[in-house]
Amino acid sequence: MDKYLLEEKFKDFVLSSQYPCLGAKSAVNNKSFQIGRYSELGTADSAEALARDLRKFVSERGAIKSKFTTFVAIFEGPISIPEKAFEDLLWKQLSLLISQDDQAWNDTVSSNPEDNNFGFSFDGTAFFIVGLHNKSSRFSRRFAYPTLVFNPHDQFEFLKKSGKYSKMQSMIRKRDSTLQGAINPMAADFGTISEARQYSGRAVSEDWKCPFLHKQNK
Asked: 0.85 exceeded by the pTM?
């Protein structure tokens, strides 16, 4: 699909009245997001192209005059795969992506997905990843194409320091619960459990092991 049409689809998805994430809405409304289009999720070719685009996003963030910025990686396939298959491909893609990274892991987060302080890092920037696909059990994660949304960690820290984070988080969780009919069992504050459990959108068990092939902090 044409990149412009993908961007319009994503904007319609985020700006729908039911979509719960207020930060994403702000990024779309302020045009402070970037979109990249890739072929298959979980492939080396996609990792190489995504690494190039994500570096560009990181380098340009300082010029974006908005509290919320995000990078949206949309993949043309595979379409209509089960949640577990999407989760496996998400982590395969992130593992392939860091093989393209020559920068040290961001020191504000751990590189170990079993650590409560885990966060994904690329080009020295810590990210919280939101996975979207059309078979997600969470309505707020159902998008037509497999998608990885890269949200910089530091904007959450900015909100915490400004005293706005808790109120915004509460509003988002309330909206998500209203949409779904039940609270997200994976929702948790950073540092209480590994955020790796939240990336794919699938509800995972306590003994779940993240398949991420990660490099350790230096």
From this structure: yes
